[in-house]
Design brief:
The protein is mostly helical and 61 residues long. The chain has helices spanning 28-38, 42-57.
Amino acid sequence: MDRTIPPPHRILWGTDWPHANVRHMPDDGDLVDVLASFAPDEVTRNRILIDNPDALCDFCY
């Protein structure tokens, strides 16, 4: 299985919060740390968390 991380302009961040259907409750801080591990710079995180969802959903600010 290819586990290559796609380029930042192709990534969206999402969770199943509030994790209603899980047996073991994940630590949300750990989940955010995962994002920081593969997007260590602020520009890339902003692209994943803000710019990409905005482009996909046409949010208006």
